[in-house]
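Running log. JK asked me to keep both predictions on one page so they can be read side by side. First protein, sequence followed by its tokens:
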Amino acid sequence: MTGGVLVAGVGNMFLHDDGFGPEVARHLAALPQPLTPGVRVVDYGIRGMHLAYDLLAGVDTLVLVDTVPADGNSAPGSIRVLQVSEADLDGRAVLDPHGMDPAAVLGRLRSMGGSLPATYVVGCVPADLSEGIGLSAAVAAAVPQAVDAVGSLLGRHSSTPS
């Protein structure tokens, strides 16, 4: 992929609400109308190295969909849209080739020869990160809101392939 927008669903579906990102990616991929040209939706799950290599191939805009910590006033199921900059990242973060830590993936891009594209996180505050499959009721109810938030970002930041 060169240029365009990458929507990356990340998380571990075996840790209940951590499967939020992949679930949103599945919903986006199943939309009856295609997304804006130049947009690719991928369920990365816990494949951090796969995400890193796709980013190194060149992306104009990245939209990560994942769980995020509460900000003090956020109840489980709350959607938060965040913008990420180089200043938010630690370039010394350890990249686990067998796991997914989005902050480590993004933080290590420069050392791998890449750069951070315009990056956003569409995050959901989890209710349950214990072992098990399936989203909690609050997080499952937030999936359509997250799909809408991604659509809003795509409307502002999509581009056609180079």
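And the second, directly underneath as requested:
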Amino acid sequence: MKRPTLSLAVASGLAVVAAAQIILPKAAPQAAEMQMKPPVNVEDIKWGPAPPTIPPGAQLAVVAGDPSKEGLFTMRLKMPANYKVPAHNHPTDEFVTVISGDFRVGLGDKLDMDKGQSLKAGAFGEMPAGMNHYAWTTEETVVQIAGPGPFAINYVNPADDPSKQAMK
């Protein structure tokens, strides 16, 4: 009785190995066909002006993906000292890593520099979609923002939207 069980186990194992040999060679060319974008060193990051929906004075660099489209993106925002981003939210989750400087963040419907938290280089924060928050800096600061696109910023007070102020 034990012999047929052992033969069945050996036969099953051989079938798995044979199936893996058939499947795996086909998977390798697919991996080789995938195109990896080259890594980017900090000195190679291309900075430009931030879009009009972000208060003037900041610079933006898209590191990966396209924030204006569906899909994951990563971008960096370089802000001067004493820079302020009024209370806002995003329609998608936002993941922020502080690269350098002192990034101050708070929760609520209005920028309140007496509240909030100081985040230094290496700090990380996550803002769920729709959560009102604000930010400011005390020195030149660079943050990395990642998340699912499309990225958008909705100001709690529409009068705070710099793109609307530019139209006046």
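Observation for JK regarding the second prediction: The chain has two helices and eleven strands.
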